[in-house]
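We emphasize that the prediction below concerns an isolated chain of 363 residues; any contacts that depend on oligomerization or on bound cofactors are therefore not represented. The input was used exactly as deposited, without trimming of termini.
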Amino acid sequence: MLQNTRADRTGDVLAAVSQSGPTVSFFDAASDRLLGSVEVLAEPHEICFDPARRLLWCTNTYQAGYYRANSGRRSQLTVIDPDARRIVEVVDIAPEVGPHGLSLDAERGRLYVSVEGAEGAEGAEGGGGVVIIDTASRRPIGRIDTGAFGPHWFVASPDGTRGYASNKEAPFVSVLDLVAGELIDRIEVPGGEGLAVSADGSRVYVAAPHAGGFNGGGPDATPGIRVIDTELRRVIDVLATDNVVVPVHLTATGKVLAGELRTAPAPATGTDPSGRASRPVQAPGRLTVFSADTHKRLGDIEIGRFPLTITSSPDGALAYAAGVIDSTVDVIDLESLQRLARIELPKLADAGAHGLAYIPKAA
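Result of the prediction step, given as a token string:
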């Protein structure tokens, strides 16, 4: 079984981002051999493959640093030819800044990009939005406000009519009408991280609570994945986990993949004048698998520290999990829940592997 998951992947490619590289690297999906890398602007985060045009989109989010601890927010997207492994164009969406999440509607030629907000639009009550890019012209053609600062992740429904943005600093998922171009609802969750939508559009799976105390405190709810009924527009179930989840991914075979952040006590570093205990350090993460149909927990496996992105092969047989601290991508057989390989990415600072995209070979 383990060999069969890799045997027919010759010509397929895994693209992986190194945040501090700053690079997008390409690996043979059958052998994990490095095929080449493309240097990009600082702080690349997420990537998205457009199969219709065979182009890879990459968000460049900050000048340096990370969310709420950066030296300035960028406004660029890098467009890459993954076959030639070269940059096609750098698209500037200023005045919008902090692009991060990507969701493609290939049928309608639309790419949706979540942005933290325009310069000067700070605060938890607004500023954030979703920029709409026409994939033919590679230019912005619209923007929809999400009603909160810092929407980090976004998914469009398969029929292209609805969009869902999770907000790191607001206790709701924003529901967008993609046809009318407006915010139409807020679904209550205790802060949100990654999210995924089912193939029929009836369910949205969102990681909550958020992984940081951006509202003045840490997570205050059971960690896991909130299951949203998109017709009722409310949470109908919680897939509970032992730790806070950041990335969420739904495979073609109906498995919900959750990347758990785990911590361990830090060693003593001397006297703390405040009397507070030392802050915990990141331990190896965990990939936890659920059935999308039954919501049953199917198992878990240890992965790299601080998982930020998870994706899967088109047939749903393999999972790929990026751990930003270790700067590794774990290749997991989802039937046996065994690790087949660990790919190492370059990093120049404390932030490495981030965005992932699976690129099938050209027809």
